[in-house]
């Protein structure tokens, strides 16, 4: 975004992105004027469709999907090799690309200002560049996200991981005073080191106070869901604003650009996860993704199961009955945040995720080779660059 357009109060990430665009005026001007689409339905109409989705999605917890064979090329291709920490150095980005090429990962997932470097590093390889948009809060205004998305594609990104403005969904369902935050994943250094304060303040309850419950369920280790479905029209979230943002990004970045919507599931109730799934399908996103790795405990099995079930149900919907205009098109699920081990990875794939976002890809691949050679055993030795916020370069 041109500096004249920059809002006065910027996050560190936004400051870097604005700086990047200011240094690349050709790229910025290539984007031209960006029009935001008009909405498709009123909030009431969205609410009625979403309520149906919330009632009909059926989670089969016991269902196990066929995960690619551990150690196979297909297994490696499920991994988006990720570095999203703000202070990643060029050398770390180069190492990320080289590791992704060597391991045969699907992509490297980085911030906008690293995209040109990754594109250049990965020329001629099958590894694509994925760029996060609106990272990590998701609350940036729509124009800002659109310019970021346009710039990322212009710079060569093939996949965009866009953070949902989840505050819009949760605005009318504030945490109840008696609710407690989900426990932090003690192995998640990202959460522990940089967002603990945010998480404590912002983490949403998993239990609502009202009313209609769908047939879906989540794994027993998650608190029991009591989905919130607003009954007072004044409490209907601004679904239109969410859809409009997503649909405009889709129209600015048509297929084959792969679009993933990051929910930040730790901040949402199951009903809100289903609302977000519905809107993502309506806007023709390719993936729904659990977490940024910067807020809350990251991918949880029950949430992944719920999202997979939502994708299955929504793929049966058509435009005329409120679903995606591309009838039969099925969104996929990317599990991300806190996936640190081969066991975590396999668990998510067997729950139906087809993509994994992790900064522990090297470790996971080392484990998978060890399992192949020795059967399941202890974790491999060596030093690996773990975690999105790897203020720790963990030694094992
Ligand atoms: O999208 C990917 C996540 O940001 C990665 O999170 P992680 O560092 O916890 O693996």
Automatic annotation (TrEMBL):
Region annotation Disordered: where it falls in the sequence: 169-234, 371-396
Enzyme Commission number: 4.1.2.4
Presence of the UniProt keyword Cytoplasm in the record: yes
GO molecular function, a single term: deoxyribose-phosphate aldolase activity
GO process annotations (BP): carbohydrate catabolic process; deoxyribonucleotide catabolic process; deoxyribose phosphate catabolic process
Keyword terms of this UniProt record: Cytoplasm, Lyase, Schiff base
Enzyme class: lyase
Known catalytic reactions: 2-deoxy-D-ribose 5-phosphate = D-glyceraldehyde 3-phosphate + acetaldehyde
GO cellular component: cytoplasm
Biased composition range(s): Polar residues: 178-212
Residues spanning the membrane: none
Amino-acid biosynthesis found in the keyword field: no
InterPro entries with a match to the protein in the record: Aldolase_TIM, DeoC, DeoC/FbaB/LacD_aldolase, DeoC_typeI
Similarity comment: Belongs to the DeoC/FbaB aldolase family. DeoC type 1 subfamily.
Protein name: deoxyribose-phosphate aldolase
Species name: Massariosphaeria phaeospora
